[in-house]
Amino acid sequence: MIDPKTADLPDTTSNDIAALRFKFESGSPAGQLQLIPELIQAGESGLEVLMEFLLQSKSNPATLVAFKAYQTLESANSKVADEFLQTHFPNGIVPLNSERGIDYTPLQQLLKKQDFLSADRMTLQKMCELAGVDAVQRKWLYFTEVENFPIKDLQTINNLWFVYSEGKFGFGVQHEIWLGVGKNFLKFWPKIGWKNGNNWTRYPNGFTWDLSAPKGHLPLSNQLRGVRVIASLLSHPAWSNKSPES
User: GUN4-like domain location, by residue (predicted)?
Assistant: First the structure.
């Protein structure tokens, strides 16, 4: 007798799984993203493919594919998946590396909830911590402090924004847009929704704090003291490597 709970599920054979595994492992990032729903439909066997993928990419898992795989396992209602994530990724999918002992866990927690307004404020706080006691007290940055930020820390902050926004936000995204407009800030600001004509977007209500925002909209940088801080940030050597792959 057919169990009505499983009557509509596909009959996934070992050959089906083997074919899906091969397509996923050999596919491009875009192709892998398209295959994840098929792996979900394959049940526990499909989840195993995603778990193997995450283990293999654990040394550098800050990609959209890894994030989607992690997100899928987290919401799969599977004891095996839950135990896997708790064992291998207890602090989330992005390695929270810091050369100066900064704890980026609070930022990750806010981004994980997609509380982008609070995450934006936390980002400034963490960057001030990175700059030192004087910056923490004044609550803003000098461009010379930004120039001396460790690559590892900036990449950690960027990777958190990138993966939890599904590739839409982050300094690396802003860097690519800035290069695309020839480093022209007059073109850059409207492109990412910080200015409309002669009018600056008003903080906080004028900004869009969800994924409907323009690409590169977040995180923010204070322009009241000129462009030297954001110019130092967008030209930092942290972006000499490519942004996390899509």
Answer: 98-237
